[in-house]
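Could you join me in thinking about how sequence relates to backbone shape in a protein? We need material for that, and I hope you will provide a protein of your own picking. Label the sequence line and the structure token line clearly, so we can match residues to local backbone shapes. Would you write everything just below, so we can both look at the same thing?
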Amino acid sequence: MVIPDLRLISGRCTQYLSNKIAEAYGQDLTAVEVMQFSDGEFEPVIQESIRGSFVFCIQSTFAPADNLMELLLLIDAAKRASAGYVVAVIPYFGFSRQDRKDKPRVAIGAKLVADMLTAAGAQRVMTMDLHSPQIQGFFNIPVDHLEANAIFLPYLKSLELDDLVFASPDVGGIKRARDYARQLNAEFVICDKFRVKHNEIESMRLIGDVSGKNVVLVDDLIDTGGTLTTAANMIMEKGAKSVRALITHPVLSGKAYEKIEQSSLQELVVCDTIPLKQTSSKIKVLSVSSLFARAIRNAHEYKSINSLFINKK
């Protein structure tokens, strides 16, 4: 079987990460010029022939929505340039928090984005740590769902922490905390929160014992930081030895950086799926570039992606 030529194409907001993915893969990015109109409209133009190529369009879809629109235009441009196969590589899948109809008269944003990507011409999607794994079912095309534990667990093991306990900052993250705990033969606890509205917590309680333990909070994303810092402070008040967090996507909006600096967190470890808006002595960034490069290579060579996952017991 003849494997088609591979091309890596990047949107503007993820250029910093795409360059690292291309370097890890061992291939330069295909040139793209974005024409900008005076009213804010933009038009990506692929500068090289990609006819018949296996094209990977790399772009996270964090705010503003222009980033999503640019990805859709890149996919459409690749399709109209006669690309042989088009893959949307979305390290951070925006709108994933809108994954169900939990109140009357609301959109299911994640499903809408899935439909838009397919309509634009994506034939496969590659992403990491969706807010809900069930979002994969919104697509009628293959989805490669990478997991950040392949990056976080080796780092955590290097710290050689004793009396380790994993914690979920809310009930929705129980499975993630349990999976991490299972990998390292540790216990896990749950922070049960009651939220009055988006980004505002009314109360929180701890289910489990953390006295004398080194606690690690795990979650898929951190936005305003309210849930995470409240959980961290409560855990330390309950007698924990230390508390740190492993969070895949650093959305970090509003006063998140200020909350983190003032919290009991010893460190917040995140991935570079979203660029940091500012530096912080408490935030450590681990790159997903090598993982995505390996996933892209496996997809291009028709090999299994499963080898990139840390086996679960």
Summary: The chain has a mean pLDDT of 93. Residues 15 and 59 are 8 Å apart (CA to CA). The chain has two domains: 6-147+289-308, 149-286.
